[in-house]
Write a structure and sequence with these properties.
The chain is an alpha/beta fold. It is built from 15 helices and 11 strands. It has a single domain, classed as Amidase signature (AS) enzymes (Alpha-Beta Complex).
Length: about 475
């Protein structure tokens, strides 16, 4: 019998049970499929359940393991993907009504790598239409409806990886693949109380993924824990001839944590303009970090550069270019969110000089951020300044007075391609989870994961489960 303890178990535990043949990949997959079909729609988390393919892959995994051909920790483990990754024979909708029935008849490189690792694809998961590139301003920005956090379904699961965050948090799948251009992994990880890793730009191939911003987009895992994220990253990282921006840089996720004290800095402004519970949980997390790391007393300022403006300009310009044909066709009127229906036309008019200046200044930003981060293993801040937004009002009206410096590092890190991981660190208003984000130098995923794992070894927030109706 597949119990909740199994459904919410971390990947290492599931892999051990599967390897020892005390847990059947077929039975685990059946349980996940049932939850995806019954709970998934209630959370606005699922676009397509891939039942036939999943059972085929699960049976193959079970036979391979019986024959002694064990492929590693993801063999027989169910997963879901944000519906911007192409999947052969399965609709890939990009969260947008104009593409509800569109099939891109190939598998994205990430899908191919996960299949090679023996993982079992169970669902295409919901997302904000076009990954939020057209300035949506409320939770209802997908043809599947608003994504709901399973902790309180009156609140948003966070964008644009709405489905991956909710599906992992609700025990529908052990892990999922999300994407981030500017906050789309970190935000739903925080709002859903899961662990979400944004890799260094170029760490993971984007071949077969929807392009919103060629110079910013990144794919990464969302899972129960930082350790789970590391196991998934190990399977999907690496160079790909089909993606010239991918880098031939091996990533190995160690079983054991390093024997060292980490050096951590607190970002200046991290405690400003945040909800009281977010502040308390952040301060409590800092106290835990001090038990195994040296946390600098003086806060670390980010370079005084227009990170947010640069990212906004690049997202608008590259997004308008990526979707120019659709914008000019007039079919933007089919989109769900009012802002999404109209902003594309304005984005087509962004001056080339503004876009080129945003690209040019990124060189200066990379140098300045590298210098800022050089003395530290990680810099930290709350993942978001507030808990999840209510689904019945526009974002700017959700929490007046809150929204301080905690989010500024998201724009800064994404503008220069740095990695980050958000992990849960408590609860706030309306029993909603909060998160802490660890940000680091480019290619520092191993260190960030080690810090996050050490934090989770000392706490139990990542083991909490929502009470599902």
């Amino acid at each position: 019998m597949i119990t909740d303890d199994i459904l919410f178990a971390p990947i290492r535990d599931l892999a051990k049970r599967i390897r020892e043949r005390t847990l059947s990949p077929v039975e685990l997959t059946e349980a996940c499929l049932t939850r995806l079909e019954t709970i998934g729609p209630k959370l606005g988390a699922v676009v397509t359940v891939t039942r036939e393919l999943a059972l085929q892959q699960a049976k193959a995994a079970e036979e391979e393991i019986k024959a002694g051909r064990h492929k590693g920790p993801l063999h027989g483990i169910p997963f879901g993907v944000k519906d911007l990754l192409a999947t052969k024979g399965i609709p890939t909708t990009w969260g947008a009504a104009p593409f509800k029935k569109r099939i891109i008849d190939q598998d994205a490189t990430v899908i191919q790598k996960l299949h090679a690792a023996g993982a079992v694809l169970c669902a295409k998961l919901a997302m904000v239409e076009f990954a939020g590139g057209f300035g949506y301003n409320n939770a209802d920005a997908s043809f599947t409806g608003p994504g709901l956090t399973p902790w309180n379904t009156k609140f948003w699961s966070g964008g644009s990886s709405t489905g991956p965050g909710a599906a992992v948090a609700a025990g529908l799948v052990p892990f999922a693949i999300g994407s981030e251009t500017s906050g789309s992994i970190i935000t739903p990880a925080a709002y859903c109380g899961v662990s979400g890793l944004r890799p260094t730009y170029g760490r993971v191939s984007r071949s077969g993924a929807m392009a919103l911003c060629w110079s910013l987009d990144k794919l990464g895992p969302m899972a129960r824990s930082a350790d789970c994220c590391g196991l998934v990253l190990q399977a999907i990282a690496g160079a790909d001839p089909a993606d010239p921006t991918s880098v031939d840089r091996r990533f190995d996720h160690p079983n054991e944590l390093p024997k060292k004290r980490f050096k951590i800095g607190i970002l200046e402004g991290a405690r400003t303009g945040v909800m009281p519970a977010v502040l308390k949980n952040f301060n409590d997390a800092v106290a835990v970090l001090k038990t195994f790391a040296d946390v600098a007393e003086k806060e670390v300022p980010l370079p005084k550069l227009p990170f947010g403006s640069a990212v906004g300009t690049i997202v608008a310009a590259e997004g308008a270019s990526a979707f120019r044909d659709l914008i000019e066709s007039g079919r933007m009127k089919e989109l769900q969110n009012e802002n999404d229906r109209i902003n594309g036309y304005a984005y087509l008019l962004i001056p080339a000089v503004d876009y080129l200046q945003a690209l040019r200044i990124r060189g200066k930003m990379k140098k300045a951020m590298a210098e800022t981060y050089e003395p530290y293993d990680a810099l930290i801040a709350p993942s978001r300044s507030t808990v999840a937004n209510p689904i019945d009002r526009n974002f700017e009206l959700s929490y007046p007075g809150f929204g301080g410096g905690a989010g500024s590092v998201i724009s800064a890190g994404n503008s220069v391609g740095q990695p980050a991981i958000s992990v849960p660190n408590g609860f706030g208003e309306n029993d909603l989870p909060t998160g802490i984000q660890f940000t680091g130098k480019v290619w520092s995923e191993e260190t960030l994961l080690a810090i996050a794992r050490s934090y989770q070894d000392a706490t139990a927030w990542h083991q909490k489960r929502p009470k599902l109706a």
